[in-house]
Amino acid sequence: MQEHRKQKWVNEEFGEAGLSDGRQVKRLRKMAEDFYAMPQASINEASRNWAASKAAYRFLDSEIDADMLLEAHRQRTLERMKGLEVVLAIQDTTTLNFTTQRAKRGMGGIGTKKSENRGFFCHETLMVDTEGIALGVLDVQSYRRVEQPVKRRRQGQATERESGRWLRSLESCQRAALSSEGAPQIVSVADREADFYEFFAHGAKEASAVEILVRAQHDRELEEGKLFARLAEQNACGYLEVEVPGQDTRAKRRAKLAIRFLPLRMRAPAHWQAASEYPALKLWAIEAREVDQPPGQDAICWRLLTTLPVHNFAQAVQKVRWYTLRWKIEVFHKILKSGCKIEERQLETLERMERVLRIDVVIAWRILFLMTQGRAHPQICCTVLLEDFEWKALHGFVNKGSPAARQPPTLGEAVLWIAKLGGFLARKGDGRPGATVLWRGLAKLDTLSQAWLAFSPS
Length: 458
Hints:
Blueprint: H1 8-14, H2 22-37, H3 43-47, H4 50-60, H5 71-81, E1 86-97, E2 108-109, E3 118-129, E4 134-143, H6 164-177, E5 185-190, H7 197-206, E6 210-215, H8 227-233, E7 238-244, E8 253-266, E9 281-291, E10 301-306, H9 313-324, H10 327-339, H11 350-376, H12 388-398, H13 411-421, H14 435-455
Parallel strand pairs: 1-5, 5-6
Antiparallel strand pairs: 1-3, 2-3, 3-4, 6-10, 7-8, 8-9, 9-10
């Protein structure tokens, strides 16, 4: 029988991981392989035997700094960014709910003050190129909410509050932007929660190599009028059609957006002490408002704030298109929760959960990478993401009775086959495979690959 699967990408993404003990490195790689092969499985099920399970729990119970487990992946992410002109650093927070696991220690409140829900928060920075390919996770911040919140200061010091996670992501992007000559332009992309003065001010002072693109939440007072009204007063400079993803009962659709923009200056909040001493930040605002929306549907209206100059329709459209890629991190969080089942990990402490979270984050990225790479470059060879034994097992199963393949299929073909293993029907109108069918298909592909290794000639 041939040796169990060998995943080159696991060695690359976890490397030495800053660990001095070679046995720990070996165990980490084995856990990553097992988790990827069976994304939805428990640790015991993925490990396949009690000895491997005990070793995994022992690893997670060690004193290893959780962030060290992400270091090799972070370096590989920087390598994938090289040669690109622009990379989007999409940051967002998700809540991990462990309310039903009463024995789990170190959890904090995750709902309103009256809620009894317990868990912790995870804030990631996902690096994506302008085609939508997920390049890697640059930063992971996990934290619990303190029972007695620190009193908010009237100015500065956001890093001492929960809002500091947005600022720390900017600092990570700044280090990446300065990591090597010829590094791409990094644009930090965030939703409305990042629309606060200190985020932009911190970027200008501590992360000047990083540009910012944020969806506006506040209707700010400008020198003449208020932001939203001023945007609405501008003449539309053109129209853009975008695909709006489905959500709950809302079907996906094509939307026609009228584009407007204007320059502005963001002043420090008036309630700050000595607010006048803080600089007014020069920004550009963009509005993309849907026209002729379907009956019964609310019109889409995205208002964006950016540090990038916007002087014409093409520049405005570029920023809107970049913002639409923010949904990649929503898919990433879906994979992390529903694909990797992070909220079902049976580990007793926050520290153990933080370690397994870093491993699951890389697994979730890998699944997203497979999906986005397959969509962007379906004609390239599948060996960029699959090992030889994997594509041969896949080809043999899909093409039963056919001679063994001599040449690997394209990535687009391989991704479609994996999705079909996961239940994708590939009917006309079904669109392209999503994350759910891919993580299901990967688990079945692992079984096929093991059979191929066991029964194929040496």
